[in-house]
Amino acid sequence: MTPTETSYILLGLGLTSTGVALSSTSYFILRSTPLTALGISTIILGMVSLALGRSQPKIPPEASTILLESGLENISAIIEELGLTSKAIYLPSSMTSGQPQALIPIHQNPYPPKPKTTLPKRLIVKYAPNPEDIGLLITTPGSTVTNILGSKPGPAMGDLEAALSSVLTGTIDLADAIKVTMGDGRIIVEVSNPRLEYRSMRVYECLGSPIASMVASIATEALDKAVVIDREEHKRGKLMIELKVLE
Question: What's the pTM?
Answer without folding.
Answer: 0.74
